[in-house]
Every structure is written in structure tokens, then in C-alpha cells.
Design brief:
- 55% of the residues lie in helices and 11% in strands.
- By secondary structure, the protein is of the alpha+beta class.
- Among the domains are: 136 residues, no CATH class; 161 residues, Histidine kinase-like ATPase, C-terminal domain (Heat Shock Protein 90).
- Strands 3-5-6-9-8 form a 5-stranded mixed sheet. Strands 1-7 form a two-stranded antiparallel ribbon.
- Helix 1 runs antiparallel to helix 2.
Length: 444
């Protein structure tokens, strides 16, 4: 599988609402005020309290201005959010400058604006805020007012400890930013992929609902059509034998009879009980999926057998489920796409479990991304375009097919296992296992 790369589906970030930043800053204002007042009065350490409170008042005034000027629900541009978070870094640096620099344990709060940026802003803004925070921390290591302490001469930490504090802030800022960004990206990818999954499932459910709509239409049209047929027959009986439009009446009667036959076929799902129509045997279900795929250059075989060693085990019967149908069909189509000449579908069952295995003789799964198989927006389709060569004429897979199929099958109660076939065979193998109690409706 020659091409392997994750596909990004979300545009440049910039998802912060003004209300979020305003609330975070109010939290900072309250926390900073409480910390300064406790240090100044109950603990008795002398602080430049007027200067500290002035910086806090500036933040509060900025919050009030933002709340009055713009609606809280407004989404901020990446630039506006980055500038506001940059202000928070500088305001914290100012407070730390007045209260001991890196000797102040609250210096670790430099992580907060950078982490917020990592979860919601483009990388360039996160990098800029990280550099700003590290620059401020580096300056505060050398330039700051004394740390508030008892005694006339104050208190000073050893340079080696300050170096360790600086290194801790640097490493924590980088690690927190990378970790938070990665988690946020994965959350967005999963959200986008799940939305696509829900759309596919809704489409399948709408298609299934057409059967019921057709049956309802057949039922409603049956009565007026019977009236038309009855009136036509009465007209034929009352009119003379040599009436010139007699052939037209015969045609009308025959077409009415044909319509009744069509409506009867459409009404079959309604006439049959749900327990009959909505059930399908395992072999019939697999054959229905495989039949449209036969006739290509790839041979598709289906084998059905029981693993019960003690005696006869009842044949498994499934309830018609769009999730299972779509999931299995998608896996079969993928196997045919990658197969060289053959795809094998094997079904086994026992008293406790039903298993379906789909294997092909293609190149198999790429070992470089084996741990990521089944994740959304990861595709390994050779011949689907080469971005490096600028080939945009060919289709590039979105990397959602396997994820959607796996998600739908797991929702039906299955566990899905992906692997490469054992040597000397080559190719990929996907095994689906259902607890029999979860899907078999024909045991009783």
C-alpha cells in the first residue's frame, strides 16, 4: 500500500468564543486578588500591593470593556484570541515581576494561556505565545523585585534552583501545548467522522423506511384501483358487443389488473409479519451482499460452517439491520479493491458466538500505520492519486470507510479485529465476532 497519510478535515483553527476568554480572565482576576490579599494580610508578607492591584484592575476593566462592546457568543478570530491570550501572559509576567519572579511558585501559571491556545488556535499562534511565555520566564529569572519574605534582608533562592524552575516551566509549557493540541485535534477528527457515520446510517435507515412507505401506498391505492376495475367491468357488460371503444375498455381492465399485481408485490412486507420479513439467515444475508460484487476480475467465495463439536447447533438468523449491512458491504468492497485475484468470506458459529471473516490476497495492511487502522481520515489506497506528483485527476480516499464500517458493526454488538494473514499467505484479514445472544433472533 504505497500511499499512507492522515487527511485533515478541519480548517484553520480559531474556535474560541469571547465568553470563554472573559470567564477565564475573571477566574484569573479573582484568584490573583485572593492570593495577593492573603499574602499581604493574614500571612503578613509585605507586597507592592498598590501596583499588584493596579494590574489586576486593568484585567477587570478589559473584561468589562469586552463584555459591553461585543456579544459573548461571538467567535473570535485567531488573531484576536491570540492577542488577548498574549495580554494574559504579559499581565501575569508583570505580577510575577513585582512578587519575586521565578522564585514565586505561581510562575507555573504561564502554562495556562499556552495550553488554551494549543486547544483552539492555529499552531503559529500557539508557538508565538509559547515563545512569549518562555521569554518572560527567562527575563524574570534575572530581573524582578524581591520575593516577599520575613526579615529585613529578605529571602533569595539558589541560582541552581532557579535554573531548575526555568527548565520546569520550559518543559511543562512545551509538553502541555503538544499534548493539549493533539487531544483537541483527535477530538475534532472523531467528531467529524462520527457526524459522517450518523449521516450514512440515517441514509440507510431512510432507504429501509421506503419499504414501509411503499406498503402504505399500496394499501391506500388498493381501494380506488378496485373501484376503477369494477366500474370498467360494469361498463363492458352494459355496452353492446359491437361498441367501437370496447377494446379500450378491455385494455383499461387489463391495466387495472396489472396495477393490482404491482401493488400486491409492494404490499408484501406489510402482509408478512415483522418476525418473518425482518429476519434473514446468515448465508442468505452474506449471499445478498456478495452477489452484486461477483463478475469482476476478483473471485469472491462464501463458506458457511458450524464450529459446534458436540452436536447440531441451530442456524443463526439475523434481524435486518442497516448498520450490519452497510458495515459488511463496505469491508467486502475494500477487500475487492485491494485483492489481487481472490476474496474469501467465511462464516462460523457456535452456541455462544457468530463470526464472519473477510480476507483477500492483496498486499495487506501497511505495518507503518497498523496501530492506527480504523481511525478516521487515514487512507492507504494505492493508485488513488499522488499528491507529491500533483496528480489531482484521480480520487483520493477520505479514510472514512473503514472507520464507519467498524463503528456501525461495533454498535450492533460486534468486535472487529484487523490483521494480516499468516505466512506463507499474503493479504489482509478482518474478523467480526458477535455474541450470539446479541444478534441471533432465530434461536427460540
Amino acid at each position: 500500500m504505497s500511499e499512507t497519510r492522515p487527511i485533515k478535515t478541519f480548517p484553520e483553527l480559531g474556535l474560541l468564543r469571547l465568553r470563554t476568554l472573559v470567564r477565564l480572565r475573571w477566574l484569573a482576576v479573582i484568584g490573583q486578588s485572593i492570593a495577593i490579599l492573603i499574602v499581604q494580610y493574614p500571612l503578613g508578607f509585605k507586597l507592592p500591593i498598590a501596583s499588584c492591584l493596579a494590574l489586576i484592575v486593568v484585567s477587570a476593566a478589559l473584561n468589562i470593556f469586552l463584555a459591553l462592546r461585543w456579544r459573548g457568543s461571538q467567535k473570535l478570530s485567531a488573531r484576536a484570541a491570540g492577542l488577548l491570550l498574549g495580554y494574559d501572559v504579559l499581565q501575569l509576567a508583570g505580577l510575577l515581576y513585582l512578587t519575586g519572579g521565578l522564585q514565586n511558585p505561581f510562575a507555573l501559571l504561564f502554562l495556562v494561556p499556552v495550553t488554551v491556545s494549543a486547544t483552539s488556535l492555529p499552531m503559529i499562534w500557539t508557538a508565538a505565545l509559547g515563545l512569549l511565555a518562555l521569554a518572560c520566564a527567562s527575563i524574570l529569572a534575572f530581573f524582578h523585585w524581591p520575593l516577599p519574605w520575613d526579615g529585613v534582608q529578605g529571602f533569595s533562592l539558589p541560582p541552581l534552583y532557579l535554573l531548575g524552575m526555568w527548565a520546569a516551566i520550559v518543559s511543562a509549557t512545551i509538553f502541555s501545548a503538544i499534548y493539549a493540541r493533539r487531544i483537541a485535534e483527535e477530538a475534532r477528527i472523531m467528531s467529524s467522522a462520527l457526524q459522517a457515520t450518523e449521516m450514512v446510517l440515517a441514509r440507510e435507515q431512510r432507504l429501509s423506511a421506503l419499504d414501509g412507505l411503499a406498503a402504505a401506498a399500496a394499501h391506500e391505492l388498493g381501494t380506488p384501483l378496485a373501484t376503477i376495475a369494477l366500474v370498467a367491468k360494469e361498463l363492458k357488460r352494459e355496452l353492446p358487443q359491437k361498441f367501437k371503444h370496447r377494446e379500450d375498455i378491455d385494455l383499461l381492465i387489463s391495466q387495472a389488473a396489472r396495477c393490482r399485481e404491482i401493488l400486491t408485490r409492494l404490499a408484501v412486507p406489510e402482509q408478512l409479519s415483522d418476525d418473518v420479513y425482518q429476519q434473514v439467515g446468515l448465508e442468505a444475508m452474506l449471499e445478498d451482499m456478495v452477489a452484486p460484487l461477483r463478475g469482476s476480475d476478483v473471485t469472491v467465495s462464501v463458506s458457511i460452517m458450524s464450529k459446534d463439536q458436540k452436536g447440531f447447533t441451530a442456524y443463526p438468523v439475523f434481524r435486518r439491520n442497516p448498520a450490519i449491512t452497510y458495515g459488511l458491504e463496505n469491508l467486502l468492497e475494500n477487500a475487492i479493491d485491494f485483492a489481487t485475484s481472490r476474496v474469501d468470506v467465511e462464516a462460523h458459529w457456535s452456541l455462544a458466538q457468530i463470526s464472519v471473516t473477510v480476507s483477500d490476497d492483496g498486499p495487506g495492511f501497511d505495518q507503518n500505520i497498523f496501530d492506527r487502522l480504523g481511525d478516521p481520515f487515514v487512507t492507504t489506497r494505492p493508485g488513488y492519486g499522488n499528491a507529491a506528483l500533483g496528480d489531482e485527476s484521480q480520487h483520493e480516499g477520505m479514510g472514512l470507510g473503514l472507520f464507519i464500517a467498524k463503528t456501525l458493526l461495533e454498535r450492533s454488538g460486534a468486535s472487529v479485529t484487523l490483521a494480516n494473514r499468516k505466512y506463507p499467505h499474503k493479504g489482509a484479514m478482518i474478523a467480526i465476532h458477535w455474541p450470539r445472544d446479541a444478534v441471533d433472533v432465530g434461536k427460540n
